[in-house]
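Query protein
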Amino acid sequence: MGIQDRKKREKNLRCQQIQRAAKELFLLKGFNSTTIEDIAKKAELSPATIYLYFKSKDELFASLNFITLQYLVDEMKKVYDNKSLSPKEKMLKFKEGMYKTYKYDPLMLRNIMHIQLEDTLSVISEELINKLNSLSQKGMSMIAEVYEEGVRQGKFIKGHGMAHADIMWGIFTGLLLWEESKRRLNPKKDFLRPTLDRAFDIFCRGIEKSNSGIASEK
């Protein structure tokens, strides 16, 4: 291994060390209550070292979303590439991938909402924004292309693939947000899985050409 390769590897390992410490603290204390100093102490590094890798706490938080998005896209790619599945089966498997990603990273929703609904985009690097956009586009495109394949096969009603990808993603994130809010009031209640199953069943029935009462788009 050359010097440059070793330095790159060491940099990646240090970055992962910081991200692991940050993720643990964000889950334990929440974003607002966690400081760079807390993360540095947890990672056994100095705050100055943290800033060598991430210019702000917001950027560090956003970088965790990149890891989760990569995990989600990898799960979706397995489904997308499976030629034995019908378009409807792929849609339902996409849901499984989304749920699996949430179980892998409970911070997922908070990351998404923090990045999309607050002023985070203005304080993170353009490089990270581009990476997040690229991964998001890749995931949404897979859903859209599966929908369009269903249309070509005469299984789904005609419509815009990306619009239906947005609807599918909106169902998932909306229910996740709603169920999380209910669970905070009563931690014993966890109906996310059955609610998602029912919602996606309704969604798939709605886009099926033979079952839908929805007028197709011209």
In short: Residues 27 and 107 are 7 Å apart (CA to CA). The longest helix spans residues 3-29. The radius of gyration is 20 Å. DSSP finds nine helices and no strands in the chain.
